[in-house]
C-alpha cells in the first residue's frame, strides 16, 4: 500500500515536468512576438493573433499535464 502511494506521488511529480516545458514554450512565443514586431511594426495585429493562438495551444499542453498529474494522484 505504501509502495503504491509513493509510486503515485512519483508519477504525479514526473507528470508535472510538462508544466516547465509549457513555461518555456510561452516565453518563446512571446519572445518571438517581440522580435517580430520590432522588425516589422506594421504586422503587429497579425503577429499578435498568431501569438495568442500559440499561447493557447501551449497552455493546453500545460493543462493536460496538470490533469494527468491529478488523475494519477486521485484516480481509484
Automatic annotation (TrEMBL):
The keyword Mitochondrion applies. Its main location: mitochondrion. GO terms for cellular component: mitochondrial membrane; proton-transporting ATP synthase complex; proton-transporting two-sector ATPase complex, proton-transporting domain. One of its GO terms (molecular function) is proton transmembrane transporter activity. It is a multi-pass membrane protein. It comes from the Eukaryota. Keywords: CF(0), Hydrogen ion transport, Ion transport, Lipid-binding, Membrane, Mitochondrion, Transmembrane, Transmembrane helix, Transport. Signal peptide: none annotated. It is found in: Mitochondrion membrane. InterPro entries: ATP_synth_F0_csu (IPR000454), ATP_synth_F0_csu_DDCD_BS (IPR020537), ATP_synth_F0_csu_sf (IPR038662), ATPase_proteolipid_c-like_dom (IPR002379), F/V-ATP_Csub_sf (IPR035921). GO terms for biological process: proton motive force-driven ATP synthesis. Residues 10-72 form the V-ATPase proteolipid subunit C-like domain. CDD domains: ATP-synt_Fo_c_ATP5G3 (cd18182). The chain crosses the membrane at residues 12-38, 50-75. F-type ATPases have 2 components, CF(1) - the catalytic core - and CF(0) - the membrane proton channel. CF(1) has five subunits: alpha(3), beta(3), gamma(1), delta(1), epsilon(1). CF(0) has three main subunits: a, b and c. Belongs to the ATPase C chain family. HAMAP family: ATP_synth_c_bact (MF_01396). This is ATP synthase subunit 9, mitochondrial. The gene is atp9.
